[in-house]
Every structure is written in C-alpha cells, then in structure tokens.
Amino acid sequence: MIDIDKIDRKILSILQADGRIANVELAERIGLSPTSIGERLKRLQRDGFVEGYGARLNPHRLGLGLLVFVEVMLDKTTPDVFERFARAVQTAPEVLECHMVAGGFDYLVKARVADMTAYRRFLGESLLALPGVRETRTYAVMEEVKRDAPLPVG
Amino acid sequence: MIDIDKIDRKILSILQADGRIANVELAERIGLSPTSIGERLKRLQRDGFVEGYGARLNPHRLGLGLLVFVEVMLDKTTPDVFERFARAVQTAPEVLECHMVAGGFDYLVKARVADMTAYRRFLGESLLALPGVRETRTYAVMEEVKRDAPLPVG
DNA sequence: AGAGAGTACGGAAATTATTTGGTTTGGCCG
DNA sequence: CGGCCAAACCAAATAATTTCCGTACTCTCT
After folding, report:
1. How many Å apart are CA A86 and CA A106, to the nearest integer?
2. Which of A7, A106, B3, B58 is packed most tightly, with the most Cβ within 10 A?
3. DSSP 3-state assignment of A62?
4. Which CATH number fits domain B6-46: 3.40.50.720, 1.25.40.10, 1.10.10.10, 3.40.50.2000?
C-alpha cells in the first residue's frame, strides 16, 4: 500500500473538481513548480489513484430527465443467474450503476431514461426479460438533492 | 431547447470517456479541424451540455472500501424536516448522492466510508442525529457490478 | 441575387506540457 | 564521520497544444 501526503491529496481534490485545470495553475494554487506537480500527478496515475478523467454532462440537457432506482430480486434456483444478470446489465446503456447488496433484495440498479414511458419499456424489455428476475421494486427520483459529490480526500 | 447533431454527440461521448484528451487528437478521431472542434466544444459548454470535468479517483485506493445505500424515512410532523435534512446531507462528506424518491421511503442516500466501523459512526453521528429521521434501512454493497457508466449520448 | 448566420479551415501568436540537467534533502551504511 | 543513494524539487529549453484572426463555403430568408 502506497501512502500519499497532504500535497497529493490537494492535487486529487482540485483535479476532482476541475479535471482540465492547467498544470501551471494547479502548481500555482498548491505552491509548487509545475514540474513537481507533473511528477506527482504521473505517480498518482501510475499507482492507480487516478483512474481517468471525464466530462460531466447534464443528463436533462440530453433528454434523460428521469432517474430511477430499481431493487431486483432473483430466483436462486439456477446456479448462474447472478452471472447472467451481471453480464446483461453491463450492456444496457440505461443502467448507470448496478450493485449487489446484502439485505432484503439482491441487486440495486440505478438507471437514467427519458421519461416514464421509456422506463416502462426498459423495465419490460430489458430487466424483466432477463431470466431469473423474480421481482422488482421501482423508485422514481423526484428531486436530486445531492448529485455525484466528490470523494472526500482531505 | 437546443439540439445537437451527430458530431456533437461524438464529442460528448469521447469526452465522457477521456476528459483530458487533446483537442487535436479529438479532432483527428472525429475527422474535423481542431479549430472547429474547439468551437463546438465551447458551444456545448456554453449551452450547458458539459457542466465540467473531473478526475475519476479509485475509492478503494483512498481507503473508502465500503459503499452503502441507506433508505431514510422522515417524520412528517414538522414542515421543514425535508429542507433541514436536505441541507444537512450537503455538508456530509460521506454522502455522495442523495435523492428524494416516490415510494416506500423518503430519501435514498449513497455513501462511501472506510469500513463497517466507520459506517456505524456515520449512521449514529450524522444520519440519526438529524432531527426528523424516523427510520433507516441500510444496504451494504457486496460487489459493484457496474460503476458510474457514461450517459448514453449516442 | 444579396445579406446574414452558421460552420469550417489554415496559419500565426500565445499559452501550456514535457523533457533535461542540476541542486538540495534525508536516510543508510561502511 | 564521510560517502553514497534515492527522492523531491526547481529553472530553462524544447515540443506540443490552444487560441485568435482572416477567409471561404453553404443555407436560408427577404
């Protein structure tokens, strides 16, 4: 396990908020030379702290106005239902996240679709079409109180 | 409503996967001059399709190995419980997402902590300490099947 | 046809990233 | 203690990229 110091954390924190910041400005904000910052960042990437960079898109602008969470329960009769479900979920573009959870149900799915009509289609043609899906409970999001907050690195 | 064409979508798609790609390379991949791509990107940012850029960090590397979802039910006796809960959630660094949902409970909270010990502390000192919280149900994630997939822009 | 908007392009200038080489610091061991 | 090594830092030079500007093309509307 490689440990990181306060400066590294600051770099990660700033980069999480603004992934496209210029190296020189990053260096200025931290109080180190651009060269050092560049070396540190390279190391942070090599050691797997930074997995990549991405643009944050506005889902509403893209016509994806409805966010839903779906609790999925599987039939545990066949041995490979979990595998098959996991694989199918990867290919569904509507599914943004899918987690296997401990508790009352098996999988929690987070998906984005245009509207309720689109959701009904997604539910019927994608989720319920999968073999082994016994039951689902849908929760439509009415208000996104906090959306994709940065990880606490400080 | 401003609509975007196929080239714009391609820009967004690439940028979602690699937010730090050089403009020249982006232009090459799409088959347009860097200048044009720059202009399009500027427009996409101005019109709110791109809200920003961020580094994708590895939560496990940062000691945040446990992902939990918490269903929260509130006491609807006081009129401002929702507001107060929403405000409190913003300041909690463990909370990555919080959504008000329609259905069996009021809020769905997604949080990242180090381990179960840290979660117990978070639950007791942050969530349950809030006035108006009547009941919570916790679901610990055992396996992250799909994590933060890009929005379907194609 | 002509005006205006929108989009595209190439080249020059400004900015930024990366590499190179050298200095300092701190630990380790003969 | 003195020498040695590795890590972190920096300034300067070079390489690459972004931005700015002038121009051309195509649509559409009058």
Report:
1. 11
2. A106
3. coil
4. 1.10.10.10
Q: Does A145 sit within 8 Å of B94, measured CB to CB?
A: no
B34-75: per-residue pLDDT in tens?
A: 999 999 999 999 999 999 999 999 999 999 999 999 999 999
Whole-Å CA distances, B73 to A35, A67, B100, B101, B125 = 51, 20, 10, 11, 17
Q: Which residues of B touch A101 (CB under 8 A)?
A: 69, 139-142
Please list every residue in chain B whose beta carbon sits closer than 8 Å to the beta carbon of residue A12.
55, 57, 62
Q: For residue B37, what are the β-bridge partners? A: none
Cα nearest neighbour of B104 on chain A:
A139
- Measured distance CA(A67)–CA(A65) in Å, rounded: 7
d(CA B56, CA A9): 14
How many CB atoms are closer than 10 A to CB B77? 8
Query: Across the interface, do B112 and A47 touch by the CB < 8 Å criterion?
Result: no
* Nearest residue to B7 (alpha-carbon basis) of B35, B32, B28, B43: B32
Contact in structure between A12 and B63 (CB atoms under 8 Å): no
Q: Can you give the pTM of this predicted structure? A: 0.93
